[in-house]
Amino acid sequence: MRRTIFMSILIENISKKFDSFQALHQVNLEIKNGSLVALVGPSGSGKSTLLRILAGLDKPDSGRIWVDGENTTHVPLQNREMGFVFQNYALFPHLTVSQNIAFGLDIRKVSSEKKQQRVNELLQLMQLDTFPDRYPHQLSGGQRQRVALARALAVEPKVLLLDEPFAALDAKIRKQLRNWLRHLHHHISLTTVFVTHDHMEAFELAHEIVVLEKGVIAQIGTPQEVIDHPANSFVESFLDKKTHE
Ligand SMILES: Nc1ncnc2c1ncn2[C@@H]1O[C@H](COP(=O)(O)OP(=O)(O)OP(=O)(O)O)[C@@H](O)[C@H]1O
Ligand SMILES: [Mg+2]
């Protein structure tokens, strides 16, 4: 796969309300070029909202998103060079594995030769090459997730945003996909932000953990830092509770 210069992201004072509910409150976060960041926090703490704002699926009420020094807060989704896999972002049921992966390339009118080459690379990378012509209903849950990830990677994004990409899968497949994501990141150190409810997943994969509580960042640190020195009693009990689940 072609090596690209990956992007750093600066989230500056992002706030978002839904009616009178403050979903995010002055969130500041720097995501370093090529890093793997896990967003964790209780249900409703604003993880998906932050990811959607990063992707350009939602607009913040105030604040700015900088990508490699450029203010992208109002750049439309299709111009952001970000790949995303959201839990409810399903595969197209009437398209085969290959066609699903090629979807973004078709939209961008990539030549058929280049498209074929890219699809073949991804089929191999994702270990989907034995069934390029199957339809989504003929795949297991883990295989479907890998197709969704391949589709996100096909357009060579500079940032990968994953909202609980491995949720709703059984433990064994989660583990396989987790290893696979680590492996992928090792090969192409794509700047990646992922949301997870699985504490171990966050600790095993991420360089940096961001803990959200009620729309506010409670702590940012390496896995070791947040475990050894939780910023407050909320982080401590949240991590403790999760570790023993
Ligand atoms: N479109 C919307 N309209 C109204 N409220 C919303 C909307 N989207 C999110 N919210 C509210 O904003 C808060 C944050 O939601 P968000 O989806 O970001 O949480 P989350 O941390 O991803 O939670 P979970 O772990 O359950 O996925 C929640 O209280 C949610 O109900
Ligand atoms: Mg969510």
Automatic annotation (TrEMBL):
GO terms for cellular component: ATP-binding cassette (ABC) transporter complex. One of its GO terms (molecular function) is ATP binding. It comes from the Eukaryota. Residues 9-239 form the ABC transporter domain. Keywords: ATP-binding, Chloroplast, Nucleotide-binding, Plastid, Sulfate transport, Translocase, Transport. This is Probable transport protein.
